[in-house]
Design brief:
heterodimer; A: 113 residues; mainly beta; seven-stranded mixed β-sheet; four-stranded antiparallel β-sheet; 0% helix; B: 112 residues; six-stranded mixed β-sheet; five-stranded antiparallel β-sheet
């Protein structure tokens, strides 16, 4: 089955720690995205990548970092510099950059204790 | 396994037509259903529905939720070419820690 997987489903971390969220896709999509969703708000774009070894900041990139060493993988690191990291994080991919159909993963719920 | 199913997957209509998009769901501990409009960037939030039978409206768009039959519809009247987009349905679920499951979307094309 083709799709996007994110792990872990739930993640807890202590303040001051960095944590990395995994996102893998086997859809052979070029573009991948990371979003954050907070209660009562829509999705906000953190980072996106149009091609391997390239990525751009989204609207709320501060306190986050990404890498795109392989086409199928786009991990997101939430650093200790992120002031309010508790949120639901969604990864998505699309066939080509800028196409309007994005496929979403199941998400990771991060809670900072 | 939690599921959100949207139909149709794609739809082509003429300007001025009325369209109805469907979303059915099977999730544990349902909390709310959300509709998004997605163009060439991040999805734009449209509606959040938590109660059955209460219609939410915004201009030409409206949506309603049926928690007994586990579905929602999104209506767009007097469609315009700017309504062309992918419409995503997502369901928020869970007890203490919530999750969000998206459907695959309906690709709507409005022809002049």
């Amino acid at each position: 089955d083709g799709g996007i997987t994110q792990s872990p489903k739930y993640l807890f971390r202590k303040e001051g720690q960095n944590v990395t969220l995994s996102c893998e896709q086997n859809l052979n999509h070029d573009a991948m995205y990371w979003y954050r969703q907070d209660p009562g708000q829509g999705l906000r774009l953190i980072y996106y990548s149009q091609i391997v070894n390239d990525f751009q900041k989204g609207d709320i990139a501060e306190g986050y970092s990404v890498s795109r060493e392989k086409k199928e993988s786009f991990p997101l690191t939430v650093t200790s510099a992120q002031k309010n990291p508790t949120a639901f994080y969604l990864c998505a991919s699309s066939i080509l950059p800028g196409t309007d159909t994005q496929y979403f993963g199941p998400g990771t719920r991060l809670t900072v204790l | 396994e939690d599921k959100v199913v949207q139909s149709p997957l794609s739809l082509v209509v003429h300007e001025g037509d009325t369209v109805t998009l469907n979303c059915s769901y099977e999730v544990t501990n349902f909390r709310s259903l959300l509709w998004y409009k997605q163009e060439k960037k991040a999805p734009t939030f449209l509606f959040m529905l938590t109660s059955s039978g209460i219609e939410k409206k915004s201009g030409r768009l409206s949506s309603i939720l049926d928690k007994k039959e586990l579905f929602s519809i999104l209506n767009i009247t007097a469609t315009q070419t700017g309504d062309s987009a992918v419409y995503l349905c997502a369901v928020q679920w869970g007890g203490g820690a919530d999750g969000l499951t998206f459907g695959k979307g309906t690709h709507l094309i409005i022809q002049p």
